[in-house]
Amino acid sequence: MNSTIETILQHRSIRKFKAEKLGDEQINTIVDAASRASTSSYMMAFSIIGVKDQRKKKILAEISNQPYVQENGHLLLFCADLYRNSIHADDKQYESMLPNLENTEHFLVASIDAALAAQNAAIAAESLGLGICYIGSIRNNIQLVNDTFDLPQHVIPLFGLAIGVPNHSPETKPRLPKEAFYFEDNYVDKSKLGTELEEFDQTIKQYYENRSSNKRIDSWTKQMVRVLSNEKRTDVGPFIQSKQYNRR
């Protein structure tokens, strides 16, 4: 097994970082790796904002209710961005582009481009011996994030990525077995999928019972029912449409 695969398979979310700022060379390496991610139609429909302003970090930490959003080596904010792709269009050209800018397909394209870039950044950071944690909870107040960073139309803040020198060493968390997510030629039969999930539930129960901290009795399927039964961030959809995305 090569070192790249080993890095990927050893991924853990790091939520405690040492008080060491990343150097410019580290940041540039991570951002360069992000820029090399696959992209649809050469659109590169994403932007990254490096957050160094402690006031803005504090705002994001309060929105997320997570101290490590403020206490890390560096924080990146990943955005879906079609503003840059349209900025040189004249008024008539922009008018003809707008239906495509507003359609669901291009919202997906920009979101996927941002996610692919972020995962490249994450793997690059981990290959340098750093830890990372994705921060979707910035969307707890997506409008405030938008206003804090003065984002123009066609730019949406999607998630953050905290990076730094790890100050703890959590266990790797179990993942779904291959049989529960990799299928060939057709989607798997419901009964077979159910069997795989039952077995995974047992793995998760053992993990929660035996891990070194925050022990509890739980299963993956019960977690998913809880997560998907609670209404969450209902303002995100209208906000996305207000930024001229996902209207068609």
TrEMBL record:
One of its GO terms (molecular function) is oxidoreductase activity. The keyword Oxidoreductase applies. It comes from Aquibacillus koreensis. Transmembrane segments: none annotated. Keywords: Flavoprotein, FMN, NADP, Oxidoreductase. It comes from the Bacteria. SUPFAM superfamilies: FMN-dependent nitroreductase-like. Residues 8-161 form the Nitroreductase domain. Belongs to the flavin oxidoreductase frp family. The keyword Flavoprotein applies. This is Oxygen-insensitive NADPH nitroreductase. CDD domains: NfsA-like.
